[in-house]
Write a structure and sequence with these properties.
The protein is an alpha/beta fold. Helices cover about 30% and strands about 30% of the residues. The strands form 2 sheets. A 5-stranded mixed beta barrel has the order 7-11-10-8-12. It has a two-stranded antiparallel sheet with strand order 1-2. The termini are far apart.
Length: about 260
């Protein structure tokens, strides 16, 4: 009997033989990323999970949106693994917290701080959230081939967008004491950026024997401002899509 992925609304025969999935958060980014890789077709859309299949001369990939946060990403990875996918690249956006990282730069995560909330369901917090070196290599080479500015380092994955990333522009402006000053602490420890899914991906992938990597486009440097410049989003998404697609080609062709 063929496996049916309930949350993804996918059947095994629809994705047979596909080993690599690119994972944006937003469903509306799926087709843009897929088109950067090659010809594409939409396979399914259920809840936050939109699946697009893309094909080029190097092979076939899936682009699957995971929504916001680690819990839904863990569902996607679990079900994709049961469908036969073994390689995962997170393709997201982030806020930088180090000086010298510009809006539009790309951040390749080598590891992640596990404030995501979901990864402890797979391994204790003493277990590291690390990318696979081959996936990091493919992303690095793709950035260099396309002449895109990038940074390598550690990401902080937060379970929440506002308090976990120490944002005070909330309904009541209150952040619990354990999180006050956390952004400055992560900055001093060399953490490059905040986002919400990478620690989950790296932990789940390692525990399940899969390979994963992650790249994010910088929408804002929080040392300078908190507001995203809307007119720059499309440009950043285009750059991110091209790099992710090139990394996928390198991985499939074995040149990572």
């Amino acid at each position: 009997m063929n496996y049916y992925a309930y949350h993804l609304a996918l059947r095994e025969e629809e994705v047979k033989g596909i080993k690599l999935a690119l994972l944006p958060g937003a469903p509306e980014r799926c087709c843009k990323i897929a088109s950067a890789f090659g010809d594409f077709e939409e396979l399914a859309s259920h809840r936050e999970f939109k699946t697009v299949k893309a094909e080029s001369e190097e092979g076939k990939i899936l682009v699957v949106s995971t929504g916001i946060g680690g819990p839904s990403l863990s569902i996607a990875v679990e079900e994709l693994a049961q469908l036969g996918v073994r390689l995962f690249l997170r393709v997201g956006t982030c806020g930088a917290i180090q000086e010298g990282i510009a809006v539009g730069d790309l951040v390749i995560s080598e590891g992640a701080v596990r404030m995501d909330g979901a990864s402890p369901h797979y391994a204790p917090l003493s277990y590291p959230a690390c990318a696979h070196w081959e996936m990091v290599g493919a992303l690095k080479k793709a950035c260099e081939l396309l002449r895109c500015r990038y940074h390598l380092g550690i990401t902080c994955s937060s379970a929440t967008f506002y308090p976990g990333q120490e944002r005070y522009d909330t309904f009541n402006g209150y952040i619990i004491s354990s999180l006050r000053g956390s952004r400055e602490e992560w900055k001093k420890l060399g953490v490059l950026n905040y986002e919400m899914e990478i620690a989950t991906l790296f932990t789940v992938a390692r525990v399940l024997g899969l390979r994963s990597g992650a790249i994010c486009g910088v929408l804002v440097n929080r040392n300078e401002k908190e507001e995203v410049e809307e007119e720059k989003i499309e440009e950043i998404e285009d750059r991110l899509s091209q790099v992710a697609a090139e990394a996928a080609r390198l991985i499939l062709s074995g040149e990572e």
